[in-house]
Specification:
mainly beta, 169 residues, 2 domains, Elongation Factor Tu (Ef-tu), domain 3, SH3 type barrels
């Protein structure tokens, strides 16, 4: 089941003396967060309005409405930020990594179950799905068009066509 509120970063420190905070983004790029006027704390239960937001050295600097002093900003340190998935705009074919975690990976030709995705990591050239089957065996799947054929996010299934030698046991 898809989560409505998704983790997107963590407030790590204050910035200046007028209540701004610096957050470490947990997104493909910090620019993703620039389009949000509202973020959330406490697993999505507390909405916070964003007065200003900018990227500074791969971090996001936020001015949160009602946070006007460094003392108020300090109280937010180590808080996890969330977005509401309904506020996010994704390109065609894109999905949130959190929606892939737990998806079953199946061979599109044979129906063989290779396990469930437990992590997705970028490599520079492409992402990699980390899988674990019921016996605990781990496998890596490159996220490239020749391998990942179909993603059914709602159904929790990713269909692949492994390259020759990818899963030689």
């Amino acid at each position: 089941m898809k989560k409505q509120f998704l983790e997107c970063g963590k407030i790590v420190t204050t910035h200046g003396v007028k209540g701004e905070v610096k957050a470490e983004p947990w997104c493909d790029t910090p620019d993703f967060l620039l389009d949000f006027n509202t973020l959330y704390l406490d697993k999505g239960t507390l909405a916070i309005n964003i007065e200003r937001i900018r990227v500074h050295k791969n971090m996001v600097v936020l001015k949160i409405e009602g946070v006007d002093t460094v003392e108020q900003a300090v109280s937010l340190r180590n808080k996890v930020l969330f977005i509401n998935r309904d506020d996010a705009v994704l390109e065609e074919g894109e999905c949130f990594v959190q929606d892939l975690i737990g998806a079953v990976v199946i061979d599109i030709d044979t129906g063989r179950n290779y396990g469930k995705i437990y992590d997705v990591r970028p490599t520079g050239a492409n992402d990699v799905y980390y899988l674990r089957d019921e016996q605990g065996k781990e496998r890596l799947v490159p996220v490239i068009d020749q391998v990942v054929i179909e993603k059914d996010i709602d159904g929790g299934i990713v269909k692949i066509r492994p390259l020759e030698g990818l899963f030689d046991d």
